[in-house]
């Protein structure tokens, strides 16, 4: 795919008209039309404005720049690099502050990067092969040798996970672990409580996901901090104890 095709495909996928994109990016609809037909070649600054106007993730913005013949604008720093030490330190503080409730940090592939001590509630009894780095938390959750046998509402929780994934081999792999069940009237799609069975009693948990909205590094922008919160007083009391 060249730049013109990528621009048109991305714009349509985000349901933005040429006129709206032009207004957001500070150009004209005629120019956008010429860019999508290949009749005009964009400058670097315009590619950046178009990517920002479509609110693309930083990785996709770099890809669009590459297709237009420009070097990436946004760096991608390895998570262990010294430059990201302040970010990791801040995340460690957040994870510790969330105790006694579980919390984790994952990358774009849903591989576990950081976790607090309460996350051991999930890894207890899990097969060793699933705990070998990189630990994919979605596979850990749905694999028959993972957390799945202890998830009381496995079907609805699995559907909640699968609904958030794009089509592909990884989604197909996860879907094969859990028989599909047609969502019932109680299914709300964007949110599903997790009912986890533990030796000390059942936990009812809700989740929140935090991202770095103003990050200018690809790695940092793709980090997700998922925090588990008690959905009832009994769960809060159990976790606190």
Task: Explain what the structure shows.
This protein is of the alpha+beta class. The protein has helices spanning 3-13, 18-25, 29-37, 44-53, 58-67, 85-97, 120-123, 137-142, 154-162, 169-177, 218-222, 233-240, and strands at residues 103-106, 112-115, 194-198, 201-210, 224-230. Helix content is 42%, strand content 12%. A five-stranded antiparallel β-sheet has the order 2-1-5-4-3. Helix 2 (18-25) packs across helix 3 and helix 2 crosses helix 4. The mean pLDDT is 93.
Describe the largest sheet.
Answer: 5 strands, antiparallel
Order of helices and strands: HHHHHHEEHHHHEEHEH
Query: How many whole angstroms does the radius of gyration measure?
Result: 21 Å
Unreliable segments of 5+ consecutive residues = none
Tally of individual helices: 12
Strand content: 5-15%
First CA to last CA: what distance?
Answer: 56 Å
Which secondary-structure class do the elements indicate? alpha+beta
Strand order of the largest sheet: 2-1-5-4-3
Mean of pLDDT: 93
What shape does the CA trace take?
A: elongated
